[in-house]
Protein: Phage integrase family protein
Organism: Kineothrix alysoides
Amino acid sequence: MLTKTGLIINLTPDALTRRFQRALIELKMPPYRFHDLRHYSASIMHAMGVPDQYIMKRGGWSNDRVLKDIYRGTVADYEEKFVCMTNAYFENMHHKLQHRNEKTAD
């Protein structure tokens, strides 16, 4: 479906950046770089548990060094979710140990 040149759009990188920035302003969104979308996508996929080889394929990376060094950021929503999951696990384990100790004391 791509043209013979392989181009999806007929814009220079600078023109694409300028159009993206204008769109953010028009939509009243905070400023960020177009490239940040790639980082965010990789971070979300990692947080969702998508295996690295699929993240690498989608992002176009030939090895996982860049993926591991740069693109494994944390996402605040997922960070909170996993902190809560971890805390719940240890609270449950503590509750079970207390319950077991109460039974052996009887």
